[in-house]
Amino acid sequence: MSAPPATAVTTRGLVKRFGTTTAVDGVDLEVRTGELVVLLGLSGSGKSTLLRCLNGLHPVTAGEVVVDTVAVHRARPAELRRLRTDVGFVFQQFNLIGRLTCLENVLIGALGRVRGPRYGLLTWSARHKREALAHLDRIGLADQADQRADTLSGGQQQRVALARTLMQGPRLLLADEPVASLDPENAGTVMDLLLRVCREDRLTVVCTLHQVDLALGWAHRLVGLRGGRKVLDRTADGVSRAEVMEVYRRLETATGMAVA
Ligand SMILES: Nc1ncnc2c1ncn2[C@@H]1O[C@H](COP(=O)(O)OP(=O)(O)OP(=O)(O)O)[C@@H](O)[C@H]1O
């Protein structure tokens, strides 16, 4: 891809329905290149669905999604496959292959960039191995390169998962509750790393979180969803906690009952 445009992600009137459930309801969003945007909202407010619409994991029902210069909402399967090598995805559950070493797991991130399959460490070039080691070094786990992934702590596994995603060479990184299963210290370490790749690589990060304090501490911008609609879109600078907590105000139904 050529030089990235200043806007990394644009959605216009994005709607995603599952049967009769409207998960995302007319969301307009602009994410600038190099920004760390956190999506907040109650469980079921549409955060994960919105994230998955950005790389075409969920086809959209209506509206537009543009990532870099790719119109995701009308992309053909081959175009979507190409896009997904430019868009990394970090999941809550790490999804490492436990019996493989950390280095082998990170190398998997490069599969989209090489021709043909790879079976084991010996089939990777020295250049790829050096690159994978450099990513492990960056996340502070170079000395664990030869250790089986399933022997690491949750926090360490999530860092390896991040290194694997960086190995992909993405421009956009989508992270779906990347710290939900981590203790506060490890959660902070992972958020630090996400912010660092934003700053140093000008990588754009869109991340869902449940912890408002982490969002306030690390995000450049906060986007709040309620019932699939965008109800907050503010730079984190100067935003008050009370303002953010409004996102979590329960929806009032016609009968006065509170629902999420
Ligand atoms: N694959 C699916 N099929 C049917 N309904 C879905 C599907 N994925 C999400 N939904 C529904 O869409 C709505 C939004 O869900 P989504 O997972 O995006 O919310 P969320 O804000 O990410 O929630 P959480 O914080 O619990 O992960 C919910 O009502 C959910 O049940």
Automatic annotation (TrEMBL):
GO terms for cellular component: membrane. CDD domains: ABC_PhnC_transporter. SMART domains: AAA. The keyword Nucleus does not apply. Keywords: ATP-binding, Cell membrane, Membrane, Nucleotide-binding, Translocase, Transport. InterPro entries: AAA+_ATPase, ABC_transporter-like_ATP-bd, ABC_transporter-like_CS, ABC_transpr_PhnC, MetN_ABC_transporter-like, P-loop_NTPase. GO terms for molecular function: ABC-type phosphonate transporter activity; ATP binding; ATP hydrolysis activity. Residues 9-252 form the ABC transporter domain. The keyword Hydrolase does not apply. Pfam families: ABC_tran (PF00005). This is Phosphonate ABC transporter ATP-binding protein. It comes from Jiangella asiatica.
